[in-house]
Design goal:
The chain is an alpha+beta fold and about 180 residues long. The chain has two domains: about 120 residues, Alpha-Beta Plaits (2-Layer Sandwich); about 50 residues. Helices cover about 65% and strands about 15% of the residues. A five-stranded antiparallel beta sheet has the order 2-3-1-4-5, with helices on both faces. A hairpin with a 2-residue loop joins strand 4 and strand 5. Helix 1 crosses helix 3 and helix 5 crosses helix 6. The longest helix has about 50 residues. The mean pLDDT is about 85.
């Protein structure tokens, strides 16, 4: 690869890094081209794309940014997945693929600009979807409020029921004596 081609690749990587909110570095040694294409297709519709890069060019693209945090995960041949949207569906898809293909090895990266290692990526991949977490949070916040409203409604309701019972009790003997 000529020097001007390397500069062009570094510039492309820098643009992709700017656009990506998350970056997943994984090993792919042993995967066939067909399997790698299948993995790329799986994550393509999830707001991500995978690129096999040379370590030196990727480190050059990372210069002044997250070189130290991400550089430590770049040993051996690596594939870099640039995620522009929510990283959780991408991680789930890659993790499911890795269960049937032992060659895929999570090395690290960053999720929403926070450095993570391969073990943390696997832990994140088993989390429930964002919508489910938000629903659980809403339910836990809503629970005490529901009990408060029920308690506040109980006092007037009990008063009305007591008054109604009293009215019925006082009107009942008048009807019986007639």
């Amino acid at each position: 690869m000529r020097k001007d081609e390397k500069g062009q690749v570094v510039a492309e990587l820098q643009q992709e890094l700017e656009a990506a909110g998350s970056l997943i570095i994984s090993g792919y040694r042993g995967l066939t081209v067909k399997e790698l294409t299948e993995l790329r297709r799986n994550i393509g519709g999830l707001g991500a794309h995978m690129r096999v890069v040379k370590k030196t060019l990727m480190l050059r693209a990372l210069t002044g940014r997250d070189e130290e945090q991400v550089g430590e995960h770049m040993d051996g041949p690596v594939a870099v997945t640039f995620v522009t949207g929510d990283p959780l569906p991408v991680l789930k898809s890659m993790s499911a693929f890795a269960k049937t293909h032992d060659e895929v090895d999570f090395k690290g990266g960053w999720i929403e600009r926070r450095s993570v290692n391969g073990k943390q990526l696997l832990e994140i991949s088993v989390l429930p979807p964002r919508e489910e977490i938000l629903a659980r949070l809403l339910a836990s916040l809503q629970g005490p409020l529901v009990y408060l409203v029920a308690t506040l409604q109980a006092v007037p309701r009990d008063l009305v029921l007591t008054l109604q019972a009293l009215i019925e009790k006082r009107s009942a003997p008048a009807d019986a004596s007639a």
